[in-house]
Specification:
Number of domains: 1
Structural class: alpha/beta
CATH class: Alpha Beta
CATH superfamily: Isochorismatase-like
Number of helices: 4
InterPro entries: Isochorismatase-like_dom (IPR000868), Isochorismatase-like_hydrls (IPR050272), Isochorismatase-like_sf (IPR036380)
Radius of gyration: 15 Å
GO molecular function: hydrolase activity
Protein name: Cysteine hydrolase
Number of strands: 6
Order of helices and strands: EHEEHEHEHE
Family: Belongs to the isochorismatase family.
Shape: globular
Distance between the termini: 10 Å
CATH architecture: 3-Layer(aba) Sandwich
CATH topology: Rossmann fold
Organism: Paenibacillus kribbensis
Largest sheet: 6 strands, parallel
Strand content: 15-25%
Strand order of the largest sheet: 3-2-1-4-5-6
């Protein structure tokens, strides 16, 4: 068995600065912190994906919303991969970093469910990472005009689970 890696997508200050709150925001933060603690204790590599978009004032480099959220601040040795699209692999160094680590399983969590998280899960599968875990209670989003955040998350867990990823709750995730 190769290396598993914790991949935290777009857990950035901007996600917590809006008037509208992420669905189950505090629970998701606590779950992300628990995942980080377990990964670090096991010596599992952690990669933070950081959305960077010069056309979006919330995600422009060095804006107030751009940094990784304080609640999950990376340690100095942990990798940060910048991306500018919904796909964490598209025109980024993520694939190269994963190959360097000998990664064969990604444990995926973060923001936003229907955008960057969904796209990255599908892309990872297409690139041959077919033993991935989506942490079902450690990703979130906002209500849309059509669906609540709760409905969006349930829908994506249902669509992605057992197709592109295996679903596990935070409490059931083990790093080795």
């Amino acid at each position: 068995m190769g290396q598993n890696v914790l991949l935290l997508i777009d857990v950035q200050q901007a996600m917590f600065m809006y008037d509208e709150k992420l669905y189950r925001e505090q629970e998701v933060i606590a779950n992300l912190q628990q995942l980080l603690t377990k990964a670090r204790a096991a010596g599992t590599p952690v990669i933070f994906v950081q959305h960077t978009d010069e056309t979006d004032e919330d995600f422009r480099e060095n804006s107030a919303g751009w940094p990784i959220a304080d609640a999950v601040r990376p340690l100095p040795h942990e990798r940060i991969v910048r991306k500018s699209s919904w796909d964490s692999f598209y025109q980024t160094e993520l694939q190269h970093v994963l190959q360097e680590l000998g990664a064969d399983q990604l444990v995926i969590a973060g923001m936003q469910t229907e955008f960057c998280l969904d796209t990255t899960c599908r892309s990872a599968y297409s690139l041959g990472y077919q033993n991935n875990v989506l942490v079902s209670d450690a990703h979130s989003t906002f209500d849309s005009k059509v669906l609540s955040g709760e409905q969006i998350i349930a829908h994506h867990n249902g669509v992605l689970g057992n197709r592109f990823v295996r679903l596990l709750a935070t409490a059931d995730v083990q790093f080795s």
